[in-house]
Input
Amino acid sequence: MSGAAAVSIRRVSKTFAAGDVVALQEIDLDIRPREFVSLIGPSGCGKSTLLRIVGDLIRPSSGEIVVNGKSAHEARLDRDYGIVFQDAVLYDWRTVARNIALPLEMAGWDRARRAERVREMLELVELTGFESRHPWQLSGGMQQRVAIARALSFSPALLLMDEPFGALDEMTRERLNAELLRIWRETGCTVLFVTHSIAEAVFLSTRVVVMSPRPGRIAEIVEIDLAQPRTGDTREDPRFFELVTEVREALHGGSDRGSPRLRVAE
Amino acid sequence: MPVLRRAATLLAVLAALWALWEGFKAFGEAVGLRIGAFTVDDLSMPHLHDIVAQLFEPSRRNGPLLIEVLADAALFTAKEAAAGFLLGAAIGFALGVVLHHSQLLQRGFLPYIVASQTVPILAIAPMVVVWLKAGWLSVAVIAAYLTFFPVTINALRGLGSADPRALELMRSYAASRWAILWKLKVPASLPYLFSAFKVSATASVVGAIIGELPSSIQDGLGGAILNFNQYYLSSPPSLWATNLIAALLGICFFLVVAALERIFVRRAPEHVA
Output
């Protein structure tokens, strides 16, 4: 099982040196290929830290991470994952097309291959015709679609997303949720997704990992057995509400004393 | 319309400056104003129209017009200043890049780089002439000495200004240090660099003029200033006219850099000051 996992997290702990803050304690999690796993929890539960540890952007204090059968470090050097942050983090001085091509330049693709792939990616995120715009000429939702295209441009097997739609309005967020699911189906990548939103986590995921804070731990894992492909109707399915309630209760149970302080976004 | 308004503003400012100068002169002469050794008369404050008119007088009997002589001198100095600017900007940028990548070097060398600017350029210039022999190269090196410092300081700030998540992004692409430098840090530092280039461009003109003095170079504005300084009593407007041309040269340098900035710094409109 562990050998076939896309991401295998074994007894990972992280203590930040300043003030002995235990951000993560003994996290164990296996993510199968093509799964869509969300990490949800209140602020300070270490979900973003865990995502960065999987991406080898932060070193764990102890424990082991295996990504695509390699150490997280080797996986990063092999460009096995793409990452999307809450803000698009596009380069102002590059056009949309050249932003998407950035990782391809790093990977040493030649110009013709880059242009071809950029065209495909623009099609995938439905931004054809916007290739020569600059980032500031796009809406927040469009910028985030460029960021997704950039993260997927080199066809990584794993997509790491850190609250990618957290800064967007509800309508844009729902549209991009649907679009992300389509992209996930089309590309067949594995997604590890951090969010504050229960509804978003349930709608998108095959599994929701509920985390509790101080120290960051996995409180519960909720299997999301909603039918695929998910559509607007999914959000009105009674089972959807049951699962939302289940995740909400898991969140509250994970920190019953702290529940009033819990920041659970829409 | 905005162009017309800007032109009108420029004219109004020029007219106000002219009125200030001529008004003060007229007032000072009428009341016999004296401030210490300063007396208002045609020697200390020539009429502005005399200064401009002097440009179109022959520089010496049967010689070319003063403006032609000064234009040649300005061109000569401009070449030295441009060479000094490019040299200084390149050295300044390279220093910034090296210091950005090494805390140790930064702590070790930055104080001396700051100290270098406290040494008067007039004290450095004669030594550069001794080392390199008098010539345009020594003048360029003196101009570079005034140029590099703002570039180094702003390069350091600019290279460190990249968004931390943009750096994480580059790490996720397994980007080399070189790629991070050229594809992220340098583009992110361009607004800072151009601020420095604008300061340095005008400083390089000053550096070139000063550099001509110990080199005894006669063909540039520095030579012209020395020359007309000697004849100030017989023709005050000549020196004023030379200063006017020197100032115009500095402004030209500034405008060229500002134009390049508009081409190379592509940013969101709200970032454009």
Notes: Chain A has a mean pLDDT of 88. The first helix of chain A runs from residue 47 to 54.
